[in-house]
Design a protein that fits this description.
By secondary structure, the protein is α/β, with parallel strands linked by helices. The chain has nine helices and eight strands. The chain has a single domain, classed as Alpha/Beta hydrolase fold, catalytic domain (Rossmann fold, 3-Layer(aba) Sandwich), CATH 3.40.50.1820. The strands form two sheets. Strands 2-1-3-4-7-8 form a six-stranded parallel beta sheet, sandwiched between helices. The protein has a two-stranded antiparallel ribbon with strand order 5-6. Pfam families: Abhydrolase_6. Keywords: Hydrolase.
Length: about 230
């Protein structure tokens, strides 16, 4: 148990660290004793990367960074620290240098793009009555309702923040594609995964919220990454 790397889970837009709840319980049951979940401010890529780096620096030994959705952009930007052993992308953005999540989304718009709306303060929200069908169509209506009401909106400008030096060019990677994703186009996920040449890619018949709807297979990928990264 003690030789397992620490896991740092990084959430994306429209959710907080608690989106990882089912994954956390599953990983603990598999013997991962050092689990951490960043609570990002979602105010800028720089702010979120700084928050993630700060948590990683507090951890002794190897760390596996796991990012969901926009959290993939965060681990891409923040994953250059020497104790980061690998990067796992869960239905996530993996931009290259100079790319932003917004740019990638505009090039291949996802099915639910029109269900995102700004408020008067510049924050972007998924319309509550569209959240279930947009973000988590494979969860129960009650689970999606809680996610919709508690969603953590990003500043709209964060969508346009570009990566400087992508960590996936230097670190081992793993990727999970959600084939029924309506928030990031599945073909965009495949494209981002393919150019990273990950050690393993899996496809799940899942919504954008695969971390909640299919925590078992997601944890299978995290566990495989942890074993391989630890032995690298």
């Amino acid at each position: 148990m003690a030789d397992k790397p620490s896991i740092v889970l990084v959430h994306g837009f429209w959710g907080g660290a608690a989106h990882w709840g089912k994954v956390i319980v599953e990983l603990r049951g598999r013997g991962f004793g050092s689990l951490h979940a960043v609570e990002n401010p979602l105010t800028s890529l720089a702010d979120d990367a700084a928050r993630t780096r700060a948590m990683v620096r507090q951890i002794e030994g190897p760390v596996l960074l796991v990012g969901h959705s926009y959290g993939g952009a965060v681990i891409t930007e923040a994953g250059d620290l020497p104790n980061v052993a690998g990067l796992v992308y869960v239905a996530a953005f993996a931009p290259d240098a100079g790319e932003s999540p917004g740019q990638l989304s505009q090039e291949k718009p996802p099915a639910a793009f029109e269900n995102i709306a700004p408020d008067s303060d510049g924050y972007l929200w998924i319309k509550q009555d569209k959240f279930h069908e947009s973000f988590a169509q494979d969860l129960t209506a009650d689970e999606a309702l809680v996610m919709a009401v508690t969603q953590k909106a990003p500043l709209g400008s964060t969508f346009g923040d570009a990566i400087t030096a992508p960590a996936w060019r230097a670190k081992p990677t793993w990727y999970q594609v959600s084939t029924a994703d309506r928030m990031i186009h599945p073909d965009n996920e495949r494209h981002m995964a393919r150019r990273m040449a990950p050690r393993k890619t899996i496809e799940l018949d899942a919504s954008h919220a695969s971390l909640a709807s299919q925590p078992g297979p997601v944890c299978d990928l995290i566990e495989a990454a942890a074993q391989e990264a630890d032995g690298a």
